[in-house]
Amino acid sequence: MKRRTAREKALQAVYQIEIGKGEIQDAIESVLEGTPNDQYFEKLVKGTEENKEQIDQIIMENLENWKMERLANIDRNLLRIAVYEMKYCEDVPVSVAMDEAIEIAKIYGDDQSSRFINAVLSKVKDKLV
Description:
The chain is mainly α. Helices cover 74% and strands 0% of the residues. It is built from 7 helices and no strands. The longest helix is centred in the first third of the chain and has 18 residues, at 3-20. The chain is globular and about 40 Å long.
């Protein structure tokens, strides 16, 4: 599985966990739909969920005039995955994590999502570096 696909599927799984209040492994299996598991995909889902409190804190510190609860579900979960990659995945350059999140936002988010994701992640990047 390509990393872009792993990120898209991770978004689906994290979204499913949040909306359905389901278990991590159930969401992973549901998203894979019988296809072979992918190590990076699983790392993204589990890592994002296991570090969600810290990730959410980082996101909240970089939101202006927004609350986490008001963010669109797709945007919120895409930010979580991107911040996870930026902070915890040393083999992924921060700029790659940002670019991938922006591109995925163009596919799954609304008209403003990619710009919003870019703005928030740019602030996160400045604080992480």
